[in-house]
Design brief:
With 92 residues, the protein is of the alpha+beta class. The chain contains 2 helices and 6 strands; from the N terminus they run βαβββββα. The strands form 2 sheets. It has a 4-stranded mixed sheet with strand order 1-6-5-2. Keywords: Plasmid.
Length: 92
């Protein structure tokens, strides 16, 4: 990985979702990949990046990885197809 690239897991509480959506619209990003993942074990609870629903251990969830114009990589977790499509309509 290039030293200038950073990666972060983007899971926000529902109060932060509006602010995060506004920030995302400000920086163009491209989808690098999408996948279905399972949380095997985790210290922190993951939340859907669209609706804020908790994603429990051993539950399948949708993941989308994006890269912005600065080269930063962000991973988004979604509880279902509807939430993924709401955030990324072209992936529906």
């Amino acid at each position: 990985m290039n030293a200038q690239n950073t990666q972060k897991y983007c899971s926000q509480q529902s109060a932060d979702i509006a602010n995060a959506d506004q920030a995302r619209r400000a920086v163009p990003e491209s989808v690098e990949s999408q996948s279905i993942r399972v949380v095997v074990s985790s210290i922190a609870t993951r939340h859907c990046d669209h609706c804020g629903t908790p994603i429990d251990e051993n539950v399948r969830y949708r993941n989308v990885t994006t890269r912005d114009s600065a080269g930063n990589v962000t991973e988004y977790a979604f509880c279902g197809v509807d939430c993924k499509t709401a955030r990324f309509p072209r992936l529906g």
